[in-house]
């Protein structure tokens, strides 16, 4: 098994990325807010994975091309929007733990910028690199869910397990289930369109839905 195996190499890259994140957090945390750190960190992630994509991914020319949405893209976009709206409605109105918003340190403008950059970085990482690299040499056509989609979804899920440390258990569970549905859906769109345009747009939109339903908490926290 070589280091460039289509399952091993993404795993190594993923582990190296998180190994780099720890000292970065320890170095910058005393000086900047969490949202500012997210902007710096995810900007570095974007730079790193644009390089990795240019170096290791075939047929990358289509990644940032606009593709006309087909019926399945529109349907999945609509379903994800409704699911995120429903989950965030209940989360915003019935949760007793809002620590995930970090209202003491958050300024809304920084928060919006942070999740926009974060959404883009995550799609480059999970769909642009992990899914694409894993699918190279593996047939995608005819499969509902490609191996790359499933592999990227595993990493995407693991990255969000921390929900249980900042949310009520019931909402952490529903949010994690939504993470899986989201990842499989945008991964499917990535495979069918060969583009990251729609996955990035859908990711940003779903995170903006989160902001919309928690607007009142930002107002109450005085961080607008």
Spell out the key features of this protein.
224 residues, 72% helix, mainly alpha, 9 helices
Number of helices: 9
Rg, alpha carbons? 18 Å
The coarse silhouette is globular
Largest sheet: none
> What's the mean pLDDT score?
90
Distance between the termini: 52 Å
Low-confidence region ranges: none
Helix and strand pattern: HHHHHHHHH
Which structural class fits the helix and strand makeup? Answer: mainly alpha
Portion in beta strands: under 5%
Q: Using DSSP, what is the number of strands? A: 0
Report the helical percentage: over 70%
Verbal overview:
With 224 residues, this protein is mostly helical. Helix 3 packs parallel to helix 8. The radius of gyration is 18 Å and the shape is globular. The relative contact order is 0.16. InterPro entries: Rce1/LyrA-like_dom. GO terms for molecular function: endopeptidase activity.
Could you outline the blueprint of secondary structure elements for this entry?
Elements: H1 8-28, H2 34-56, H3 71-94, H4 108-135, H5 147-159, H6 163-166, H7 169-193, H8 197-213, H9 215-221
Helix pairs in contact: 2-4, 3-7, 3-8, 4-5, 4-8, 5-7, 7-8
């Amino acid at each position: 098994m070589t280091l460039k195996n289509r399952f091993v190499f993404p795993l190594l890259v993923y582990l190296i990325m998180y190994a780099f994140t720890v000292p970065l957090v320890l170095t910058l945390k005393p000086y900047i807010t969490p949202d500012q750190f997210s902007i710096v960190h995810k900007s570095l992630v974007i730079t790193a994975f644009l390089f990795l994509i240019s170096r290791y991914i075939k047929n990358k020319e289509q990644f940032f091309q606009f593709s006309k949405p087909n019926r399945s893209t529109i349907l999945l976009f609509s379903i994800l929007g409704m699911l995120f709206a429903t989950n965030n409605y209940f989360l915003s109105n019935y949760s007793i733990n809002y620590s995930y918003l970090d209202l003491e340190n958050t300024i809304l403008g920084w928060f919006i910028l942070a999740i926009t950059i974060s959404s883009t970085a995550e799609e480059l990482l999970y769909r642009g690199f992990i899914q694409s690299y894993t699918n190279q040499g593996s047939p995608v056509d005819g499969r509902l869910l490609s191996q790359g989609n499933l592999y990227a979804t595993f990493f995407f899920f693991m990255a969000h397990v921390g929900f249980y440390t900042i949310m009520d258990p019931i909402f952490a569970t529903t949010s994690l289930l939504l993470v899986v549905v989201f990842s499989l859906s945008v991964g499917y769109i990535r495979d069918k369109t060969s583009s990251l345009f729609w996955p990035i747009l859908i990711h940003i939109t779903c995170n903006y839905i989160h902001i919309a339903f928690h607007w009142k908490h930002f107002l109450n926290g005085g961080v607008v």
